[in-house]
Structure formats: structure tokens, C-alpha cells
Design brief:
heterodimer; A: about 450 residues; alpha+beta; five-stranded antiparallel β-sheet; 15 helices; about 45% helix; about 15% strand; elongated; B: mainly alpha; about 0% strand
Chain lengths: ~450, ~375
């Protein structure tokens, strides 16, 4: 049975295949199961312990206990073993033993990527629970799990998951080489791993997707991507990814079609706003107030009439304030959190405007910018985008509106030039037929 | 993947139509401009067909590789340097014209040369990327700007100031002989196919050019709009008073309900996008062509990292452009542009026919091999 299973199932670290030999009565049983999927205590209690104690013939136990049943058809083995059954062979008879164990109750609730109507649990810091959830949501015999250790002192286990048939072998090799090249004493979190794996040190955008959601992971696996799970970390890494994966929330698959399309458009608008709004504020008010229609230009300039310094100083004051607010609300203990944001946001904002240090339009701009930043569904992209507005502000100070355009153009160039583990990071997919082929395939001649 | 050809074709078409071409055409509006415009799509289509059909005989090869199939190294080098200089001049003209536009319309108190330097730097940075990346940038920027261009054109046509009689008057001057300059201007709009001389490298091996008859037709419609609409808005005489004709035309259009009232700013923002992209593509071709001269050059459309030679070439392009622009006054630039356009007409005729002959040669060679 074991040889045959080796052929059917992809080689995986978590597939336990044992051959037990009793020293006294010379009986053997063969045992196979997926470790994360079964309750090990149950397997011990019903199979291994009675077999080793040898109180009465093991075959009579198999026949008398209702948890065991005989499997006739070898074609159903894969199905059974993926459903958390342990397969036992004894005297050329195959039994299945139901040791299935869903660990949904042990998994924590999602903290960062919460959905309204999707699954509420995230993967756990215990890798066995995480693998249980993933194996249960992606029931394919092609799912391969490799295990390595990273960190010379911490020896943290790292699980590499991929669908053997769909994953790109070149990408896989690249990732394995990168993981082997890691030399660090301690690795405690996936974020560290993400920085080590990403190709360049000074990257503006994340090239790996950090997620805690099981459904995102299983979808990524089905698209032939590679998933890394680190022991002791609640986040998995997905690679390779494109820019559009970061704009895409899991919920887009669960809600109505039109609304989700609209939401995606809204996210792009939010991205544009949060990157360019402060820069545009400076450019328009200090260089070209005549862009807007007359009434609007008047009201903008009038709101700034009390402010005693140029617009960019105003922008810097507000941006420093908002960054401190965001940072402080993460750092302080949870039960004071709401108080600080209330004090900072509401009271300080209105007070600073009444004192005439900052115009009221700037308050609107700042809050709009901060809110639209958090529209983006993936946190790593949110962080990356939070930085992007500063270069735009700097260039807007010196060059005005054309500076903002050039800055945004630079970002587009930068994005198009990025590759995530050999995949194009930022390109419109468009219609693609395999007969036609893709660009860039002709290669070097 | 035909869309990448589409983008390459129309970046040339739109960028030049928004900059200096309308000025040269309208200054010749009582002469041969109208007949040149009428004749140019035919000319453009014949050359487009010749060039694309020859390229499809050389799948996955750019111009340098095609020439080096037939000629020794030194001839290829001369041809490539010549092509590179020509393309580089086109890019430099576009970007410096745009720098003038910015300083006259958007930022009157900014220093023109500082502005130009900023634009040159961003273009050079973009041009040093790999060919595949360039194709993606081109796609993104055109997808973002085409709707806005269509909107600008639509609003301008629907302008209540539009006077159709003026258009009729000019259109009746179709019975003059075409002049060289106006014909060169009108045909320049149709020469986007020349970019394929480099971008053929990234096309898949079994690529087929489809719908090429459609491209000149669209370009022709756009050319008609860009030529006749300013005449309808400014009138037959005043139209020659503007150098940057379309900026002035966009400025005479008002958006009643938008919070940006003047169309000019929308137009300028789109135009910066287009000019940067056009120059980026042009200079990327320059970089790639010059690189073929350097010994042990590896042709790879999807490089992981831009090699140092890219930066060196791009830096020298910047320096040359900047120095020339420091010496040249606006009036001289116009004159120079007109000479360049005429020269380019002959040069491109020569190149296209040459490639066409080479491709037939190749076919004959294969037929001989098959027969023997």
C-alpha cells in the first residue's frame, strides 16, 4: 500500500507513512495519514498502542471496532486520506480509520484582514493548525509541503507549500535558493523573512503578499503560487504576486459582482488620492490656483488667508501630526487607544484650524488622505503607499503641478520595471491566448 | 499581443499631433496642407504594410539583428548610429517643446532649463529600463491618457465657438500642389510603425500583424480633427498666430460643470504623460541601437538590471540635448524642426524600402534552398 500511495500522492513532509513491526509475534501493519489532518492521540489510542501492547490480535480489533472499516477500492484512498482518515494495511486488507480533526476552533480570529461574510478565522501561530486549515480548504493530492529550518540559532521551521502540478518550477528553484542563502541568527516573524526574500533592499513596493487568511492562501495555491508558513507567526507569505493582488480583497469573491467592481475602482481612486493629494495641494495653492474654477479657487485661497507661512510648511505640520497619531494608536495599550485618536484627531484638528496655524482645507486634505490610505485591503501595501506621498510633496515644492505629474510617472515606471520572482509585477493582462504567445518570450538571440 | 503594436503606433500619432505638426500644417493652410493631409494616409498605409510584412519575415528580430544578417559589422554600425541620431532628435524635439509649453502656460515664473532638466532626467531613467518594461509603461500611460484625449477632442468639437464655414473655406483649398514640408508633417503622423524596428524583439515568434488597415484610418481621422478643429475655433486667419496651437485651442474650451473649468490644464497633464512616454520610447530605441555597436553586447529584452552602458548612453543623450537646447532659440527650433521633418521623410522612405528589399531577399534565399 505504501509504495502505491507514494505514486499517487505528491511527496510531502506532513504525510506520515510508517511500517510497524511487532518484535514478538512478527506481525506488521502499514500506516499512512496526513499529520495535520488527524488527531494523533486518537491514532495512538486506537492503533499504535493496542498494536504494541498486543493484548489481543490486532485484526480482531480492526473488525470489531466501528471506527474501522474495510476499504475495497484503491481509487478511493486519496479521497479518504485527504479527508483525514488514517489508512492501515494488515494482512493485505486495507482499513480506514476515522481520525479526522478540524482545528477551526483552535484558530484565532482574523486581526488585520477581516471580512464581513467570509471565513472569520486566520491561520494560527502553530503551524500544525495552519496546515490543518489549509489542507482542509485545498484538498488536492498535488499539494506538496516541504519543510526547512531558517535561522542558525532559532532553527525556525519553515513550511513551503505549493501545488505540484501548477507551480512554476523556475520560481520554486529561485525561492529555494533564496531560502538557503539566508544567514541570520534569529528569525521571528514573516516580515523579517519577507525583507530577506525580496530581491532588492531598497524597494518601494512589497513583492510578497503577507496574509493571514486561509481562503486567500488556498486561492493562491490554486493559481500555482507558492506559500511560505513560518512557525510562530500568524502570517503566511504568498509569492509571486502582482500589484493587482494587493488591491484585491478576498471579499471581492463573496459579494455581488457590480458592487465589488465598483469597490475596486474606488480603491484605485483612493490610491491616487492618498499618494498625490498633499502634493497637489501644494502645487495648486502655491503655483496654479487658477486651475480650479473661480469660486473654488477663491474659497481655497481664502481659507489659507489666515495662515502665516507657505503651504508646504502647513502640509508638513499636518503630515507629521497624522503620522504620529497613526503610530501612537498602534503603540499604546489597547484600552487607551480610542482616547488618543479622539483627542488627537478631533480636538487637535479643530484647535489647530481655529488657531490659524493650518487652513481648514488642509484638515480636509489630511483626513481624506489618511482615510483613503486605509481603503487598500492589504496592510503591507498600505504601509508602502504611506511613504509614497513624501517624494511627491518634495517634488511639488520645487516644480508645482508638472512636478507632481513627473513624480507619478516615475512611480509608474518603477512599478513596470519591478518583477516579483520573475513574474511581471505591474502589467495590464488583457486578452491572452496561448496560441498567440506572450511578449518577451522570444528571448535573447 | 497586437495591442503593443497599436500603442507604439498611436503614441507617435497623438504626441506629435498635440505639439508642432498642427502649426506647420496651418501655416500652409492656403497652400498644399489639405491635399497633403488627404494623400498622407495612402502613403502611410503603403509604408506600414511594407514594414510590417518585412518584419514578419524576421520573427523576434530587431533592426540591428536584421541588418547584421546581410551586412558586415561596420555597415550595420553606421546605419544604427544614423537611425539612433534621427530617433534621438525626434525625442529631444518633443521634450524640449513640452518644456517650452510648461513654462509658457503652466509655470511662467519657472526657469525653462530647470524644467527641461527634470523632464530629461525622468525620460532618461525610464529609457534605461528593459524593453519589456518599456512596453508596459507605454501601455499604462496610453490607457490612462486615451480616454482623456478623446474627451478633450469631443469637448472641443462641441464648442459653441466652432465655426464650420471657416473649415469649409480651408477645405476648398484642396486643389493646390502639396508642399514638401506639409507633406512631411502629415506623413509623420503615420510613422509609428518604425518603433516596431526595435519592439519586434519582444513579440512572440508566431506573431501576426492584424487589422493594419485600421491604423491609418484612425490616425487619419485624428489628423483631420487636429487640423480642422482649431481652424473652426480660431478662424482662418488667427489660427496661424499660435505656435502651440492645440494648447490655445484647449484653452478656449470651457467645462461648465467640472471643478476644473479650463480644458487647458487637463490637456497639459495628458500631454506631459504623452511627451514623456514618446521620448522614453524614442530614447530607449536610441540606447538599444547604440548598444549594438559596443562589442560583446547581449541582446535581452527582459534584463533584470539595467547595465552601466545604458546609463552612460542615456547620460550622454541628456547632456547633448541640454547643451543644444541652451544654444537654440525658439525661432531656430521651429526652423530646425521643419528641416528635421523633411529630412526624416526621405530617410524613412529609404529605410522602409531597404528593409522590404532585404525581406524579399531572404524569402528568395529560402526558395533557392528549398529548390536545391
Amino acid at each position: 500500500m505504501l509504495e502505491r500511495l507514494k505514486v499517487i500522492l505528491s511527496p510531502s513532509e506532513d504525510l506520515i507513512q510508517k511500517e510497524l513491526k511487532h518484535p514478538i509475534n512478527k506481525q506488521t501493519i502499514e500506516l499512512a495519514f496526513y499529520l495535520p489532518l488527524v488527531d494523533e492521540a486518537k491514532v495512538h489510542k486506537f492503533i499504535t498502542v493496542p498494536f504494541s501492547k498486543n493484548e489481543y490480535p490486532i485484526s480482531s480489533l480492526f473488525q470489531s471496532n466501528s471506527n474501522f472499516y474495510i476499504v475495497e477500492d484503491p481509487a478511493s484512498w486519496v479521497d479518504l486520506i485527504l479527508r483525514g482518515q488514517a489508512l492501515i494495511e494488515h494482512q493485505n486488507v486495507i482499513y480506514a480509520f476515522d481520525a479526522m480533526h478540524y482545528k477551526y476552533n483552535d484558530a484565532p480570529v482574523t486581526q488585520v484582514e477581516s471580512t464581513i461574510r467570509g471565513p472569520q478565522h486566520s491561520i494560527s501561530e502553530d503551524p500544525i493548525i495552519a496546515l490543518n486549515l489549509i489542507r482542509n480548504s485545498y484538498m488536492s493530492p498535488e499539494l506538496t509541503i516541504d519543510q526547512t529550518q531558517v535561522g542558525t540559532i532559532s532553527q525556525t521551521s519553515l513550511y513551503i507549500l505549493y501545488d505540484q502540478r501548477k507551480a512554476n518550477q523556475d520560481t520554486l528553484k529561485l525561492v529555494m535558493n533564496k531560502i538557503e542563502a539566508i544567514h541570520l541568527d534569529l528569525i521571528n516573524s514573516t516580515g523579517e523573512l519577507e525583507r530577506l526574500l525580496s530581491s532588492k533592499k531598497y524597494q518601494l513596493f512589497p513583492t510578497l503578499l503577507m496574509t493571514e487568511r486561509v481562503d486567500r492562501i488556498s486561492r493562491a495555491l490554486s493559481l500555482g503560487k507558492i506559500v511560505l508558513i513560518l512557525k510562530g507567526s500568524q502570517y503566511a507569505l504568498i509569492l509571486p504576486v502582482t500589484f493587482f493582488d494587493f488591491i484585491h480583497a478576498v471579499e471581492d469573491h463573496y459579494e455581488s459582482f457590480w458592487m465589488t467592481r465598483l469597490l475596486i475602482v474606488v480603491r484605485y481612486i483612493a490610491l491616487f488620492i492618498t499618494v498625490s493629494l498633499p502634493g497637489l495641494y501644494i502645487a495648486v495653492l502655491s503655483y496654479n490656483p487658477e486651475i480650479f474654477r473661480l469660486q473654488l479657487a477663491f474659497s481655497l485661497v481664502a481659507s489659507r488667508s489666515v495662515v502665516p507661512y507657505p503651504s508646504f510648511i502647513e502640509v508638513f505640520i499636518m503630515l507629521v501630526m497624522i503620522e504620529m497619531l497613526l503610530e501612537s494608536s498602534i503603540r499604546i495599550p489597547r484600552f487607551i487607544g480610542p482616547a488618543s485618536t479622539t483627542v488627537g484627531g478631533l480636538i487637535l484638528g479643530s484647535a489647530i484650524q481655529q488657531a490659524g496655524l493650518v487652513s481648514s482645507v488642509m484638515i480636509i486634505v489630511t483626513s481624506l488622505m489618511a482615510i483613503s490610505n486605509f481603503v487598500l485591503p492589504v496592510y503591507s501595501m498600505t504601509l508602502a503607499v504611506r511613504f509614497l506621498k513624501y517624494p511627491i510633496i518634495i517634488i511639488a515644492i520645487f516644480f508645482g503641478l508638472s512636478g507632481v505629474c513627473v513624480g507619478l510617472y516615475f512611480y509608474i515606471v518603477y512599478l513596470c520595471n519591478m518583477r516579483s520572482f520573475g513574474e511581471y509585477y505591474f502589467r495590464l493582462r488583457g486578452k491572452f491566448t496561448p496560441q498567440e504567445g506572450d511578449i518577451g518570450q522570444a528571448g535573447a538571440r | 499581443m497586437n495591442r503593443y503594436f497599436f500603442y507604439n503606433y498611436f503614441i507617435v500619432c497623438f504626441t506629435n499631433l498635440m505639439l508642432l505638426i498642427p502649426y506647420f500644417l496651418t501655416s500652409d493652410r492656403y497652400g498644399g496642407a489639405v491635399i497633403s493631409i488627404a494623400l498622407s494616409p495612402i502613403f502611410g498605409y503603403i509604408f506600414l504594410y511594407m514594414f510590417t510584412s518585412s518584419l514578419s519575415k524576421f520573427p523576434g528580430k530587431g533592426l540591428p539583428e536584421i541588418f547584421s544578417l546581410f551586412y558586415p559589422k561596420w555597415i550595420v554600425n553606421i546605419v544604427m548610429v544614423y537611425k539612433a541620431i534621427l530617433i534621438g532628435i525626434a525625442g529631444a524635439l518633443v521634450i524640449s517643446t513640452y518644456a517650452v509649453i510648461i513654462t509658457s502656460f503652466l509655470n511662467p515664473n519657472a526657469n525653462q532649463y530647470v524644467m527641461l532638466m527634470l523632464l530629461l532626467l525622468i525620460c532618461a531613467y525610464a529609457a534605461t529600463r528593459s524593453t519589456v518594461s518599456i512596453a508596459f509603461i507605454l501601455e499604462i500611460s496610453l490607457v490612462l491618457s486615451l480616454p482623456v484625449i478623446a474627451f478633450v477632442m469631443y469637448k472641443t468639437i462641441k464648442n459653441p465657438l466652432m465655426d464650420w464655414d471657416a473649415i469649409h473655406v480651408i477645405a476648398n483649398h484642396v486643389d493646390h500642389m502639396p508642399t514638401l514640408l506639409s507633406f512631411a508633417c502629415a506623413t509623420f503622423v503615420f510613422t509609428g510603425y518604425l518603433n516596431m524596428g526595435l519592439f519586434n524583439r519582444i513579440l512572440p515568434p508566431n506573431f501576426k500583424f492584424k487589422y493594419i488597415w485600421l491604423y491609418p484610418i484612425i490616425a487619419f481621422v485624428v489628423l483631420l480633427i487636429t487640423f480642422f478643429v482649431p481652424i473652426g475655433i480660431h478662424g482662418t486667419e488667427t489660427v496661424a498666430h499660435y505656435i502651440f496651437l492645440w494648447s490655445a485651442t484647449a484653452d478656449s474650451t470651457r467645462m461648465m460643470y467640472g471643478f476644473i473649468e479650463r480644458m487647458l490644464f487637463v490637456f497639459l497633464i495628458v500631454l506631459i504623460n504623452l511627451s514623456l512616454t514618446f521620448t522614453m520610447v524614442g530614447w530607449h530605441m536610441v540606447i538599444e541601437y547604440i548598444r549594438t555597436i559596443i562589442p560583446n553586447n547581449v541582446v535581452n529584452p527582459d534584463e533584470k538590471k539595467a547595465p552601466i552602458r545604458n546609463y552612460i548612453i542615456a547620460g550622454s543623450i541628456i547632456i547633448i540635448t541640454f547643451v543644444i537646447m541652451l544654444r537654440v532659440k525658439d525661432g531656430q527650433m521651429l526652423k530646425f524642426s521643419s528641416y528635421f521633418l523633411i529630412f526624416r521623410l526621405f530617410s524613412e522612405t529609404l529605410t522602409t524600402t531597404w528593409i522590404f528589399i532585404l525581406s524579399r531577399k531572404k524569402v528568395r534565399k529560402y526558395e533557392k534552398e528549398a529548390a536545391s
